[in-house]
Design goal:
Order of helices and strands: HHHEEH
Number of helices: 4
Oligomer: single chain
Distance between the termini: 34 Å
Helix content: 40-55%
Shape: globular
Strand order of the largest sheet: 1-2
Structural class: alpha+beta
Number of strands: 2
Length: 76
């Protein structure tokens, strides 16, 4: 899954901060549990589990990142 994020276009990568958790460590297991994830691979965006047990198509992942970025940066 991390590889799917690493190959995103540069303009999309600039919109995100990527954190990976190693499931062989206590912090990794704790984060997995905090997200209520049940299986790997899993992807959380803005602390919300969005994809679980799948690697989404790149276009779908990009669209979700752009939507969330737009929502967070919308002028009110």
């Amino acid at each position: 899954m991390a590889e799917s994020v690493k190959v995103l276009p540069e303009d999309i990568q600039q919109l995100i901060d990527v954190s990976e958790w190693d499931m062989r460590t206590r912090p990794g297991v704790a984060r997995f549990q905090q997200l209520n994830a049940k299986s790997l691979p899993s992807v959380a965006l803005d602390g919300e589990l969005v994809y679980e047990s799948i690697i989404p198509p790149q276009e779908e992942l990009i669209a979700e990142i752009q939507r969330r970025y737009a929502d967070k940066n919308r002028e009110t």
